[in-house]
Amino acid sequence: MKLARFAIVCVLASAVFPLISQAQVPVFEFDKAKSSIGFDVKASVEIAGKFDKWDAKITFTSADPTTGVLDIEAQAASVNTGSGMKDGKLKGKDFFDAEHNPLISFKSTKIVQTGPNTFDIPGTFTIRGVSKPETLSLTVSGIGTGQGEVKGIMAFDRKQYGMNSGIPFIKIADRVEVEVDLWGKRVSGPPLDLKK
């Protein structure tokens, strides 16, 4: 009988303690209506746009911001430059190759606080099925309020990802800047413990 009671206590404890530990970590949600994932590349004709379909999440294992993991995924076929001709070219095999590689993603490997409200986030960037290490540099506003904006840029060389072609009559630079603008709020857990 004592053994059965001990087993019940263990089961109840395992059910309750994860809830307690989850409540002790900051949980944030991003508002897609106020957020965007976009890009810009220098060219003789403007080539800039955003992705209409994307998802981003950040998870923490403690109130220390350096324990966070940032995941961003954009659907390549949702590219929107405001020009159907440009969108079609970017979705095609010479650029995003959206048919065979539908997702463009970034997954952080660590978060490094570089100032009171700035962070460098090294991670793995994947486009066209090619993955390479890149760094997203972010500035965070609204620290201590429980809500705010996360803005940043990650630059990459398109030719390193197999985007070697151009567009007829348009000169395109190799450097592409991915622009992240996320508005979020803490929905549960303690505030982040920013030490700098």
From TrEMBL:
<feature type="signal peptide">
    <location>
        <begin position="1"/>
        <end position="23"/>
    </location>
</feature>
<keyword id="KW-0732">Signal</keyword>
<dbReference type="InterPro" id="IPR036761">
    <property type="entry name" value="TTHA0802/YceI-like_sf"/>
</dbReference>
<protein>
    <submittedName>
        <fullName>YceI family protein</fullName>
    </submittedName>
</protein>
<dbReference type="Pfam" id="PF04264">
    <property type="entry name" value="YceI"/>
</dbReference>
<dbReference type="InterPro" id="IPR007372">
    <property type="entry name" value="Lipid/polyisoprenoid-bd_YceI"/>
</dbReference>
<feature type="domain" description="Lipid/polyisoprenoid-binding YceI-like">
    <location>
        <begin position="27"/>
        <end position="185"/>
    </location>
</feature>
